[in-house]
Amino acid sequence: MYTATFTIYDDLNFFLSRKQKNKPITHQWDWKASIKDMIESLGVPHPEIDLLLVNDVSVDFDYIMQDGDDVHVYPMPYYQTHPHDNKIQLIPEINDRSRFILDTHLGRLASYLRMMGFDTLYRNDYPDDELAEVSNAEERILLTRDVGLLKRSLVVHGYYVRNTNPRERLHEITERYNLAEQVEPFKFCLRCNGNLHEVDKADIIDQLPERTAEFYDAFHQCDSCEQIFWKGSHYDRMEKLLNEVLEK
Ligand SMILES: [Zn+2]
Predict the structure, then answer these.
(1) pLDDT, tens only, 209-241
(2) How much of the chain exceeds pLDDT 70, in percent?
(3) 222 C-alpha to center of ligand 1: Å?
(4) Ligand 1 center to 140 CA (angstroms)
């Protein structure tokens, strides 16, 4: 039997059982195991890890655990990385932090992100395989409420959404990915994530409810599903929520 000690930092403790939170964990095993598998067996999904130190040396996910190892596990930082001499980068830098794919539990968050102008794939019937594959192939950040999905090796960029309330979730994601500065409403379709373009009122007036045609003059239409959007009462509510998030 081999023994190692794990110290898990900051909000990665979220994934540990109550007994294990916020203190060194002694772990025993008797088979050949990679550090990635062992940490994931404790509960922490690999996409949320920024730095792994074993006996004060930075190692990658394939490191094979040795008897007596002293392991320190650091979370993905929000805006700066954990400095360390000869640091091994576990997760490659992402080119664009504003493209997402969301699991089936996060429909409301998907609408909010699209409303803010972020390219957000969502379907209420996305199978896990496809979520992992598309996230990987299109370099999209996978947002999920399924820790098991984040542990799949195909998933490179991913995050477990902590909050349960949709508004709190929007706050959480906006802060984590520093989205506030990039907000651009009327860019993506709330319904299908297609691109929106401006349309002349005259071209679509026969498709509008009478009162809408009377009160509004600026319209956008989806390239894909042809849904029409304008700054109506729905938009006002959304804008209020956005301002709330941006003020924070
Ligand atoms: Zn659409």
Answers:
(1) 988 989 999 999 999 999 999 988 667 877 788
(2) 97
(3) 5
(4) 20
Which string of DSSP letters, residue by residue, matches 144-207? ES-HHHHTSTT--SEEE---SSHHHHHHHHHHHTT-GGG--SSSB-TTT-PBEEEE-HHHHGGG
Q: How far is the CA of 59 from the centre of ligand 1 (A)?
A: 45
Tokens representing 44 are 């922490």
Write down all domains in the chain, each with its CATH number in brackets. 2-75 (3.10.20.30), 99-247 (no CATH)
Q: For the packed helices 107-115 and 233-247, what is the interaxial angle rounded to 10 degrees?
A: 90
Gap from CA of 196 to ligand 1 centroid (Å): 8
Burial pattern 20-54, b for ≥16 Cβ within 10 A else e, equals beeeebebeeeeebebbbbbbebbbbbbbbbbbbb
How many whole angstroms from 118 Cα to the centroid of ligand 1?
14
Distance 188 CA to ligand 1 centre (A): 8
For residue range 153-188, what is the model confidence (pLDDT) as tens digits? 999 999 999 999 998 999 999 999 989 888 888 899
pTM: 0.92
Element (H, E) at 108: helix 107-115
DSSP class of residue 244? H
Cα 190 to ligand 1 centroid, rounded to whole Å:
7
